[in-house]
Design goal:
Helix content: 25-40%
Number of strands: 17
CATH architecture of the largest domain: 3-Layer(aba) Sandwich
Radius of gyration: 25 Å
Strand content: 15-25%
């Protein structure tokens, strides 16, 4: 028999256990309710009837993620589960550049997504080299003002730059993972091209630093990144830009030497003669596609249709030249704008919910200016290599805008020892390009015969390159 004091202690313990058990039940119920809400949000974003889409054996989702509760910004995304092994395959975020061009309109719909827009007809073309064969694939339109992404504050469109884009993209990811919590544990990679040579390393650095202080639920399992024909170091990028045109017989010896004499690429300044020579330089590209020098241009109504993207600035931080990168069909971007401006397409993708006052364009016409653009991202690349991230850089070797000469010059500035010397790499028993590997996890590969948008002209080789990047496999050194 228990004494009075013992009975009191016993009752206290029992009550305490009951309270703890009730708290546990409430917590479990709360977690269950949150999980249910997540599933409801996912299902609301699931794309079930995209016009022109053939039946497929994978799911895809599209919609908005609010950037931050206090802001009135929302970024639009399109997400494709892997064709097989969704739970085991990594998650990859793809970013296009510009600045101001859409990852949905380019990456997803013209380059590496499963549904490609190739004509003005209703049907989408199934991409047999889609990157969702080896990864779960996420596209986001960033920053606000690009594609379907929007802000309710017009002043936000005047305050954009590298820093805002990185912060908003990171906030988007945190929100996206809340909507898709099952992907939090997946290996996470970022990939992109062109001005994404800024976006990708800057976002990777922000994730890396934020992970150090993030709660367990907010840690992103970042493993590495891959960038193609990427703007990474202004001085050497610009010198390589001139060298490529000269070495490919696009400009004369005289113009080449005059530019080198009169233009100071280090200070990003030039004489009046320099400006004259630079105008002559661009005139030399006026009848061909600077982004794919050996393919046709788009002829509409007897005129060459073109815009300019991809860090094409010389001697002026706020001077942007607009030209859309082209591919096999140089009018593809025209078809893409037509498709995404269709109301039935927007309804199927849960897009344009705020009824934007301007039409959908592949590259934004509403971004006022670009306020900050780093001269170089090489220190970020070196820092993240030291942190153990896997970094691959690739270059389509017929791109004149961010050419292979620019990337080679820029990477030489890192002064990293070479692990395996320059050599050919093979795919399907043919030389697919050349590759060099550096100490510390950096690989640089060219893709033979590809322009600025490597997956457009060389889709098979691009998928193979991407697969080897994800698996950290060495590119094949021989035909056999």
């Amino acid at each position: 028999m228990m004494k009075g004091s013992e009975i009191w202690i016993f009752r206290y313990l029992v009550c305490g256990l009951l309270v703890l058990s009730m708290v546990g039940v409430v917590a479990v119920q709360s977690e269950g309710e949150n999980a249910g809400e997540d599933l409801q949000q996912q299902e609301a974003d699931r794309v079930k009837g995209l016009p022109g889409q053939a039946p497929v054996n994978f799911r895809h989702f599209a919609g908005y993620v609010n950037v931050r509760p206090q802001d009135e910004k929302a970024l639009f995304y399109w997400f494709f589960e892997a064709e097989e092994g969704v739970a085991e395959k990594p998650l990859v975020l793809w970013l296009n550049g510009g600045p101001g061009c859409s990852s949905v309109a380019y990456g997803a719909a013209q380059e590496l997504g499963p549904f490609l827009i190739r004509n003005n007809q209703s049907d989408l073309v199934l991409n047999k080299f889609s990157w969702n064969k080896v990864a779960n694939l996420l596209f986001v339109e960033a920053p606000v003002g690009v594609g379907f992404s929007y802000t309710n504050k017009t002043e936000d469109l005047e305050a954009l730059g590298d820093g805002v884009t990185a912060k908003d993209s990171y906030a988007f990811l945190l929100g996206w993972f809340k909507k898709f919590p099952s992907f939090k544990s997946h290996e996470f990679y970022i990939a992109g091209e062109s001005y994404a040579g800024h976006y990708v390393p800057q976002l990777a650095e922000l994730i890396y630093e934020s992970n150090k202080i993030a709660s367990k639920d907010s840690v992103i399992n970042l493993k590495g990144f891959m960038i193609g024909n990427a703007v990474i170091n202004d001085e050497t990028d610009q010198i390589g830009f001139i060298e490529f045109a000269w070495s490919h017989a696009i400009i004369s010896d005289q113009l080449y030497h005059n530019i080198l004499k009169e233009c100071d690429f280090k200070s990003n300044k030039g004489s009046s003669l320099c400006n004259t020579y630079i105008r002559s330089f661009f005139q030399a590209y006026s009848d061909i596609d600077i982004y794919s020098i050996y393919t046709p241009v788009c002829l509409r109504s007897g005129e060459i249709t073109r815009k300019l993207v991809a860090g094409a600035r010389l001697f002026g931080k706020n001077e942007l030249w607009y030209k859309i990168p082209l591919g096999y069909d140089p009018c593809t971007e025209v078809y893409t704008e037509t498709y995404f401006n269709r109301l039935d397409v927007q309804w199927a993708l849960h897009a344009n919910v705020t009824k934007l006052s301007y039409p959908y364009t592949t590259c934004s016409n509403v971004i006022g200016k670009w306020n900050d653009s780093a001269d170089t991202v090489l220190p970020i690349i070196k820092k993240l290599l030291g942190a153990g991230l896997r970094i691959w850089i690739y270059s389509g070797d017929t791109d004149g805008r961010v050419p292979v000469t620019s990337t080679k010059n820029s990477l030489n500035e890192l002064r990293i020892p070479i692990k395996e010397a320059w050599r050919a790499w093979f795919h399907r028993r043919q030389v697919a390009g050349w590759v060099v590997t550096y100490e510390g996890g950096l690989t640089f590969a060219t893709v033979r015969g590809a322009g600025h948008q490597v997956p457009v002209l060389k889709p098979d080789q691009a998928l193979f390159l991407f697969s080897n990047f994800l698996s950290a496999k060495t590119l094949p050194p021989s035909r056999f």
